Amino acid sequence: MSAAAPPRILGLGGSMRPGSTSQLLLRRAVSLLEADGCRTSLLDLRELDLPFCNGDKQDPWPSRPDVKLLREEFRAADGVILAGPEYHGTIGGALKNALDLLDFEHVEGKVFGAICALGGRSNSNALNHLRLVARWYRAWMVPEQVAVPQARSALPGGEPADPELGARVDELARSVARAAALLRPRTDGPGAEPLGPESALNVSRTVKREH
């Protein structure tokens, strides 16, 4: 039996702000996983031309080819790390709109992790709302999450001022990769299927033991 291919992890950056804290941390997470041997890709919503969702999840948007790119990247991924700002107590509009352009066929069964940057004090509002979106899509969200308070001063020179922040981002990234490897459909035998919920419940413990 051949060794399983490493998981494919997509990073989706949802901030429109130049020098975005969440985008820098997302790039850190994706670079770490690439160094670990994962297959990775990164989408920056500042670089995509996406329409506002019109409620039709099957609309191909032929005049907006980046919609197809977004959907294909999600379809190909085993795990996804979402990163963006919290605005007025919830998910930033650009990230939410990108998620609204997807459907179950692109997202269901995949593993998610999330990083949110806040201008003020730490809270989990946007992170909790992203968990609701993932659950609505019948996807998995790892227990780890990263909220970054006072985000504009969190990365002087592009690196975390608090080493614990960097460690938490690394832990989140590796948790997504480990869970994605466990939960993706198996292709190493006839009738192979994804691992069940019991395995998912042990993912966080496994990651913490190994890393």
From TrEMBL:
Signal peptide: none annotated. The keyword Oxidoreductase applies. Residues 183-211 are annotated as: Disordered. Residues 7-151 form the NADPH-dependent FMN reductase-like domain. Gene3D superfamilies: 3.40.50.360. One of its GO terms (molecular function) is oxidoreductase activity. It is an enzyme of class 1 (oxidoreductase). SUPFAM superfamilies: Flavoproteins. PANTHER family: CHROMATE REDUCTASE, NAD(P)H-DEPENDENT FMN REDUCTASE LOT6. This is NADPH-dependent FMN reductase. It comes from Kitasatospora aburaviensis.
